[in-house]
Amino acid sequence: MRIVLVGPPGAGKGTQAAYLAQNLSIPHISTGDLFRANISQGTALGRRAQEYMKAGDLVPDEITVEMARDRMSQGDAAEGWLLDGFPRNLHQAEALDAILAEESVSLDAVLDLEVPEEEVVKRIAGRRTCRSDSAHTYHVEYKKPQAEGVCDVCGGELYQRDDDREETVRRRLEVYHRETEPIIDYYKTQGLVVTISALGPVAEVTERAMAALRREA
Ligand code: AP5
Ligand code: ZN
Predict the structure, then answer these.
(1) φ and ψ at 115, to 5 degrees?
(2) For the stretch 71-99, what's the b/e string if a residue is b when 16 or more beta carbons lie within 10 angstroms of its beta carbon?
(3) Cα–Cα distance measured from residue 25 to residue 23, given in angstroms and rounded to the nearest whole number
(4) At 196, which CATH number?
(5) 14 annotated as ligand-binding
(6) What region holds the Adenylate kinase active site lid domain (predicted)?
(7) Protein residue with least CA distance to atom 52, ligand 1
(8) How far apart are alpha carbons 95 and 83 in whole angstroms?
(9) Whose alpha carbon is nearest atom 40 of ligand 1?
(10) Is residue 152 part of a domain?
(11) Per-residue pLDDT tens for 43-89?
(12) Neighbours of ion ligand 2 (CB under 5 A)
């Protein structure tokens, strides 16, 4: 399956993507995680992306599209993928259409996670992220690790993301409404959007998402 996950910052895209990708046996491709891995490895791409991310702005399309295209061309992505955080504006959505056309494949669904803004702010404020490239995600209240500050999955150190400060979160929400929301209408005209509520326990949201995707398949 080829699925795009959309939703505001903190909606739970990364959290759900990990479970959905496992259930569907497809790779989870997160442009945010790819950027953060590049930053921690000190690559040229990471250095270019860092200032935009820190400000809560989008990284320029030419950098982002090439990175996404490159990841989608890897062997494990031949039969499908779950895209998390890409595309993020209309230009990227058109670029993805061009990539799909080159491969003669198409999207199966765009899963839209709906969550009120006050919940998003609570989720982001309590988020802790694992330093490993897999970026396992926790929450100080809703998804506690077994040992404080340590990832259950890989033992990595948990930290608070640079862009999770309150003023940056506000900026990211603004950018989401202005740049990313329009892609939902773009995909609606193609009949691809399934919207689910992202409220409630993580496992319930996963079940809701799986049921919605089964209806689309
Ligand atoms: P990115 O990493 O994609 O961040 P985002 O879209 O802002 O999304 P988040 O990672 O903040 O949230 P999420 O929805 O994944 O929520 P999570 O599962 O962690 O992008 C970061 C930056 O990179 C961008 O600002 C931009 O600069 C750049 N970038 C990335 N892609 C780009 C692109 N395509 N073009 C240009 N620039 C790009 O959950 C949040 C918290 O809530 C966690 O603590 C979690 O444990 C908790 N939680 C999850 N589900 C539940 C639940 N059901 N109940 C209670 N708590 C929950
Ligand atoms: Zn980890």
Answers:
(1) -155, 135
(2) bbeeeebeebbbbbbbbbbeebbebbeee
(3) 6
(4) 3.40.50.300
(5) yes
(6) 127-163
(7) 202
(8) 14
(9) 10
(10) no
(11) 999 999 999 999 999 999 999 999 999 999 999 999 999 999 999 99
(12) 130, 132, 136, 151, 153-154, 156
Q: What is the pLDDT of residues 92-151, one digit of tens each?
A: 999 999 999 999 999 999 999 999 999 999 999 999 999 998 899 999 999 999 999 999
Our count of domains for the chain comes to: 1
Q: Verify whether residue 143 is a known catalytic residue.
A: no
Using DSSP, how many helices (H) and how many strands (E) does the chain show?
9, 8
Q: What is the pLDDT of residue 127?
A: 94
Q: Would residue 162 count as lying in a domain? A: no
**Domain span holding position 98:** 2-115+168-216
113 forms beta bridges with 196
Asked if residue 63 is part of any domain, the answer here is yes
Please say if the pLDDT value at position 216 is more than 90: no
Residue 125 is assigned to a structural domain of this protein: no
- Catalytic site residue 178? no
Instruction: Output the CA 190–ligand 1 centroid distance in Å.
Output: 25
Find the 157 Cα to ligand 2 centroid distance in Å: 7
